[in-house]
Amino acid sequence: MTKMEPVSNLGKFGRVLLIAVGVILMVVGIFFTSKQNISESNTGECTATIVGFKTDTKNATAHTEYTETIVDYKVGNHDYNNISLGQYEAQWNLGDKLTIFYSKDDPSNIKTKTMTYGGWLIILLSLPFLIIGIFMLVTMRRNAAKTPEEIAEDEERTTAGKLKYKVSSIVIPLSAGIPITAMGLIFHLLEHSSVLGILLIVLGGIAIFAGLRSVILYIIIKYRHRKEIKKLLKQQSEIKK
C-alpha cells in the first residue's frame, strides 16, 4: 500500500501561521477585555448629541482624512460641550444621539459602546483563524496517512453526480461566518445601524449559508449512502437464497 508524499513545509507553515495569528488576537482581546472589566466600576453612562465633525489634518494619512466626532452631553449638573469622541461612523449625522461611557474621575474622557466592547470584538475575530488553522492542520496530518485511492474516493463523493461535499466546506464557512455575523450585530446594534455592521452581517450570512448548504448536502449523502448499503445487503441476501 503506497503512502502519500509528505506534505510540504510551506503548507504546514501556513496552517501554523493561522493558528499563531488567532492566538495573538485572542491574547490581545482578553487583555483589552480584562482592562475594561477592571475600569467598569469607575465608569458612568449617558446620552450624547452629535454637534459637529472635525477633520484633523495632523493625524491624517496620505490619502485618508482623520475625522473626529464632536458631541455635547451632561453628567449630573455639569454640561460638557464640544467634546471630541475618538471615533467616526459614516452614517452619523448632526443631532444623532449616541450612548457613551465616561470616566467618573474625568467625565471628558468618553467612548462609545463599540469602543468599550473592543476586546470582545478582537476575541471574535480570533476564532476563525484558530478554528480554520487547527482544522487544516489536523486534516493535513490525516491526509498524509491516506493512500491516493482513499484521497480520490473522498474527492468523488457526490450527490446526483453533481455537488461535491467536503468536511472543510462545513467547518470553514461556519467557523468564519458565525463570528463575523456576531461582530456585525454588535456594530449594528451598538452603533445605531452601522454601515460596517451591515456589511459584516451580509458577509457572515453568506458564509453561514454556504456552510448550512454543505450540512444539508452531508445529510443527503449519508441518507443515500445508507439506502445503497441496505439495497446491496438485500441483493446479497437474495443471492444467497
Attribute tags:
6 helices; alpha+beta; 7 strands; 241 residues; disordered N terminus; five-stranded antiparallel sheet; two-stranded antiparallel sheet
Helix content: 55-70%
Q: What's the arrangement of strands in the largest beta sheet?
A: 3-2-1-4-5
Structural class per helix/strand content?
A: alpha+beta
Q: Which spans of ≥5 residues are poorly predicted at pLDDT below 50?
A: 1-8, 60-64, 158-163
Structure in words:
The chain is an alpha+beta fold. It has six helices and seven strands. It has helices spanning 9-39, 113-116, 118-144, 148-155, 168-190, 195-240; strands at 43-56, 66-75, 78-85, 97-103, 110-112, 158-159, 163-164. Strands 3-2-1-4-5 form a five-stranded antiparallel sheet. A two-stranded antiparallel ribbon has the order 6-7. Helix 5 packs antiparallel against helix 6. The chain is elongated. Mean pLDDT is 75; it is low at 1-8, 60-64 and 158-163.
Topology of this structure?
Layout (H helix, E strand, L loop, with lengths): L8 H31 L3 E14 L9 E10 L2 E8 L11 E7 L6 E3 H4 L1 H27 L3 H8 L2 E2 L3 E2 L3 H23 L4 H46 L1
